[in-house]
């Protein structure tokens, strides 16, 4: 299936427009059907000739390159208006499963460009989108925009960020990096639509690894439910425990209840084995617990793709109180996942159970003020997250879609 890619830009001086043109050409070179679209600008910018972007273009696209200038460390107001304009489609559950990447430009090298890309992804995750950065790609995928040949990226794994010049000019290496990013996005969008190259073992069940801090009882139960959700879709699942300095001592949580057997300790090979990976952790000081961060850091190779490259990944958390970092920990986890080249596939609002469990689109979360054990709503959300991981892992390896009766996203239903 030919993927449909929309490259949507806002530009006053021309930087973002040039990058968008290059990304569109890269997506076209992959073989995608491409639309280059501008965002309306209250008359403040030049009248660029491209068609104006609207919410229906998000609906049309399988993949989107979102290109906003950095304004005060954020997307520009016109760009935010464009995102907000998709509310009705989002509410109707029609924007799930788009594949999104981001591009930006800023005057200062460290003037908020990473913040802008991460903000873009946060909004895309509310849609239920999958986000692809410029981190290392898996072998055989379209070339790596962070490759030293494309100096414009400067090692930014979140997407493309370049230095804006006064005249709106764009260096050739930045244009080349935008081209590569467009091509990569089209490649992932094609596979997400089951139109990519079939994996050599396409008939085998997809593989999901659920890694968790097992000493935290809440997280352990969420992990089991997540694993059960993946198995519901026919996935082969490895439930793995993080070894390392004790989470129990750090968090002061009770140990394993009921004498359930401990999961095997996780190893890098469990991540290499999987088609998709889900990470569960208690929140410590607004971030993931140290053992998880240590394990993730061991996955990021000094150069080239690591075992997470090109694979769907997401996380779930437990906190002591309702607003004690359940969002910030997951957002910081997403940053690390992008560094590893993963495709971040959080739950978004892709199922009513997400709303019922507190409405965290970045990952399932449970606050222990509601009880040490997860609520039935949190368990249902974890199960949904496991199903989604299995589905995304299946898609990105190009395997045929699972049977219609088991499918749970509008995109799946639409395709079968
Ligand atoms: C309202 C406004 C806010 C800006 N904020 C930042 C900023 O936070 N950091 C930075 O480095 N550059 C900032 N800039 C510079 C823009 O990032 C730069 O002009 C833009 O990326 C150029 O893109 P364009 O050529 O596509 O219009 C700002 C510019 C404007 C107009």
From TrEMBL:
Flavodoxin-like domain mapped to chain residues: 5-186
Record PROSITE patterns: FLAVODOXIN_LIKE
Region Disordered, residue ranges: 390-416
Pfam families: FMN_red
SUPFAM superfamilies the UniProt entry points to: Flavoproteins
Protein name in UniProt: Flavodoxin family protein
